[in-house]
C-alpha cells in the first residue's frame, strides 16, 4: 500500500511539474505577443511603399519601417526613398512571389505561415524563402526557413506510408537549383568536422550552408532512384558544388565488385597470352621497322624529339593523315609493356589512353583501357589503397581531355522510359547526324555502352566502391 501511495505522489508531482512548465510557456507566449502587438502597431506609423515583384509584376504595399527593420538590403536601398519616388521593382528570378509573400508575413509577425501551400510542396517554398532571405540580407528569416525545412524533412522521414520525396522530384530539383544558384558557401565540398590547418586551438568546425547540406543529404539518401531520372541528372551535371556536397551523404558500397577467382585468373592468363603473342608475331618482325624512313615528332612543352620509323606510327590515324596516301594500311600492334602489379602505373595507362584518343588510334586506346581495368581488378583482389591514391590524377587527366557523347547521363545506362531530354540536344550540339534506331546487330544495351567513354566509366565504377 505504501508503494502504491508513493507511486501516486510521484505521478501527481510529475503532473504538477508539467502543468507549471506549460503555464510558464503560456506566460512567455503572452509576453511575446504583447511585445509583437506593440511593435506591430508602431509599424503603421510609417508611410507605405509599393514594391513590384517578379516577372508577373505583382504589387505589394508595405510600411517602409517594417522593411528597413527586417532587411539590411531594404535598409540601404530605401534609406532616402519615399512613397513619392514611385514603386520599387524586384524583377530578378530569385524574387519569387510566394517567397516574397512569406517575407511580408515575417516583417509583420516575426515568422511566416504556409497554410495555403500543400504539405508535399513546402520544401520548395522554404528553399525559395531561404534564397530570398539571403538576397534581402535577412538572417533571422533564413534561420526560420531552414528550421521549417528541417521539420518538413523530419516529418517526411517519419511517414508510415513512406517518404513523399520521390513523388515531388520536380520540387526537389527546383529547390536544388534555387539554393545552389542564389546562395554562397565558402566551405563547399569540405567535410563537416575537419581540422582547420594552422589553428592552435584545434577547432574542428567549418562554416557550411546548412540548407545546401540538407538538400544534398535528401538526394544522397535516395540516389539509387534519383540517378535514373532525367530531370535530376540535369541538375546533377549543372552544379558541381551539389555533387561534392552529396558525396558527404552517399553510403559506401556494400561489398567489392563480384569478380570470381576463376575469372580473375582468366584475365591474368589472357594478359600472359597477349605477351606471348607479342613475342611470336612482333618481336620477330621488329627489324622491318628499320626499312622505312623516320618521322620527327616533337612532344610536350619541352619539345622532346622522337625519331620514329614511319611504319611504326601508321597505326595512328592522326599520323596517317600527315603522310601520303600511298602509305601502307596501319597494322594492329598486339601489346606494350605494363606491370599490372604496380598500381602507380594506373595514371600512366590514363595518359596512354589520352594520347591514343588524340592520335585517333583506337587499338592503343582499347589496350590502355584494358590494362587499366586489369590494374583495378588486381587492386580489388588485394589492397585498393595504392590505386585510390592514383585516382585523383587519373580523373583530372581523363575528364579534362576526353569528351563523352552522353555526358548528361549518370554511370548506369538509363532505360527507354527514363531517357532524359538532353539526349537530343547534346547530339545536335555535336553536329552529329541522327540515325534511326541502333546499328544492325547491336542491342540497345550494347549501343548505350558504346556511347560512353570507357575510361570514365572505369574510374566512376572503381571510385564508387570506396566512396567513403
Automatic annotation (TrEMBL):
Residues 418-449 are annotated as: Disordered. Residues 422-433 have a biased composition (Polar residues). Residues 47-116 form the BTB domain. InterPro entries: BTB/POZ_dom (IPR000210), SKP1/BTB/POZ_sf (IPR011333). SUPFAM superfamilies: POZ domain. Signal peptide: none annotated. Residues 439-449 have a biased composition (Basic and acidic residues). This is BTB domain-containing protein.
Amino acid at each position: 500500500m505504501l508503494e502504491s501511495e508513493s507511486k501516486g505522489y510521484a505521478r501527481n508531482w510529475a503532473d504538477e511539474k508539467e502543468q507549471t512548465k506549460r503555464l510558464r510557456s503560456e506566460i512567455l507566449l503572452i509576453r511575446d505577443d504583447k511585445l509583437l502587438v506593440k511593435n506591430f502597431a508602431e509599424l503603421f506609423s510609417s508611410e507605405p511603399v509599393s514594391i513590384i515583384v517578379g516577372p508577373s509584376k505583382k504589387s505589394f504595399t508595405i510600411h517602409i519601417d517594417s522593411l528597413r527593420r527586417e532587411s539590411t538590403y531594404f535598409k540601404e536601398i530605401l534609406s532616402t526613398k519615399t512613397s513619392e519616388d514611385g514603386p520599387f521593382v524586384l524583377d530578378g528570378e530569385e524574387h519569387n512571389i510566394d517567397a516574397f509573400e512569406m517575407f511580408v508575413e515575417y516583417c509583420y509577425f516575426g515568422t511566416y505561415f504556409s497554410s495555403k501551400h500543400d504539405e508535399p510542396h513546402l520544401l520548395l517554398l522554404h528553399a525559395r524563402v531561404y534564397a530570398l532571405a539571403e538576397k534581402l540580407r535577412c538572417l533571422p528569416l533564413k534561420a526560420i526557413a531552414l528550421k521549417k525545412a528541417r521539420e518538413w524533412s523530419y516529418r517526411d522521414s517519419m511517414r508510415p506510408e513512406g517518404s513523399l520525396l520521390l513523388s515531388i522530384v520536380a520540387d526537389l530539383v527546383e529547390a536544388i537549383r534555387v539554393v545552389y544558384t542564389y546562395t554562397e558557401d565558402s566551405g563547399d565540398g569540405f567535410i563537416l568536422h575537419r581540422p582547420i590547418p594552422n589553428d592552435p586551438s584545434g577547432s574542428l568546425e567549418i562554416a557550411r550552408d546548412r540548407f545546401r547540406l540538407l538538400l544534398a543529404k535528401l538526394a544522397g539518401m535516395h540516389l539509387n532512384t534519383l540517378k535514373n531520372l532525367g530531370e535530376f541528372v540535369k541538375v546533377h551535371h549543372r552544379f558541381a558544388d551539389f555533387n561534392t556536397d552529396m558525396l558527404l551523404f552517399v553510403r559506401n558500397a556494400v561489398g567489392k565488385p563480384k569478380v570470381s577467382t576463376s575469372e580473375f585468373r582468366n584475365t591474368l592468363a589472357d594478359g600472359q597470352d597477349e605477351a606471348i603473342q607479342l613475342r611470336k608475331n612482333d618481336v620477330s618482325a621488329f627489324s622491318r621497322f628499320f626499312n622505312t624512313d623516320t618521322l620527327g615528332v616533337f612532344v610536350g612543352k619541352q619539345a622532346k624529339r622522337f625519331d620514329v620509323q614511319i611504319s611504326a606510327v601508321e597505326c595512328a590515324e592522326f599520323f596517317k593523315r600527315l603522310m601520303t596516301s600511298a602509305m601502307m594500311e596501319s597494322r594492329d600492334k598486339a601489346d606494350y609493356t605494363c606491370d599490372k602489379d604496380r598500381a602507380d602505373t594506373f595514371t600512366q595507362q590514363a595518359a596512354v589512353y589520352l594520347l591514343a584518343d588524340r592520335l585517333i588510334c583506337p587499338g592503343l586506346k582499347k589496350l590502355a583501357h584494358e590494362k587499366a581495368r586489369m590494374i583495378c581488378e588486381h587492386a580489388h583482389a588485394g589492397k585498393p589503397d595504392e590505386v585510390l591514391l592514383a585516382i585523383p590524377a587519373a580523373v583530372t587527366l581523363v575528364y579534362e581531355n576526353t569528351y563523352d557523347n552522353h555526358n548528361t547521363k549518370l554511370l548506369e545506362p538509363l532505360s527507354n522510359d527514363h531517357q532524359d531530354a538532353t539526349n537530343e540536344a547534346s547530339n545536335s550540339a555535336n553536329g552529329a547526324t541522327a540515325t534511326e534506331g541502333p546499328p544492325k546487330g547491336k542491342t540497345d544495351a550494347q549501343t548505350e555502352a558504346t556511347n560512353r567513354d570507357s575510361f570514365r566509366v572505369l574510374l566512376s565504377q572503381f571510385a564508387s566502391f570506396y566512396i567513403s
